[in-house]
Amino acid sequence: MNKRVAEIDYLKCVFILLMIAFHLVFFSDKYPWVKQWVYTFHMPAFLILSGYLMRIEKRPGEFGRMMVWILIPYLIMEAGYVVLSAVLPVREKVDGLSVGLLLDKLCLHPMGPYWYLHTFMLCGVAYYGVFHPQGKPGVVSRLIVLGVCYAILAECFRVVSLPNALYFLAGVAVRRGGVEFTSFFRPSFWAVVPLVWLSADAANLDRFTLGGAAIVYLIISLLLSVYPALPQKVKGGASYVGSHTLILLVFSPVFTMLSKALVPLLAFDPSGLVFLMVALGITVCGSFGLAWCLDRLRLSPYFWGKERMLQPFRT
Length: 315
What we know:
By secondary structure, this protein is an all-alpha fold.
């Protein structure tokens, strides 16, 4: 898994851009059905990819360091998000900011998109604990044990959503089953037919239903079928964005909050599409800009645990 898979980076690019787009309230509120449809698959697909890609071959110290350098940006940005939500007129408003509330959000119930990092760390540590030790239990037995661990985290400790953890587990199952991602999620343009049929029923627009899980599979299959037809420059750009999704996930809330200032300027377009294009461009460029600043100021080793987070773009 040291070699990057271009199709996977492409999928990550699509899903992170959808996440950003539908965190732009002015735009997403204009299209409630589309928002519900996108929410059915974009983060579940990300969780599947996360479970598939996570490397547990590392020694405990190496794996622990990897998790620490997810934890540090998570703590910094989640704390900032909570504080800003207490003072800014945002939808996810916090009343009565206190140390107890901050600890609750950091440890148990994160706000904004940072819930993904919280879930990623908890699911990842459990995955490592179950699968890393060498021993007799087979893959199926370990998957069952891991599923039980996730159920305990969800139902007893209430620190993760069980359906979200199960999507992560699905990615683990594909990986541990020795199946290539693009073999399990077979590219097919014909996936559009059952996708439209399932999406027409509002009951399926829920990631936590069988219909919703089928939509997740079908959208991945459809997107993979489109990939070979894309121009090379588009593939290169998608791979670059997809290989830097952590940067976008960590920094994008800064710019989705700031983008509210654009609403009066761009409200002339009733569709909200002009706002979407401008705000999405600012968010992506701004997030990469912040990462570039950290690199240039030599702060990345203290924030990401890497000498350089932003890699040079190669066509």
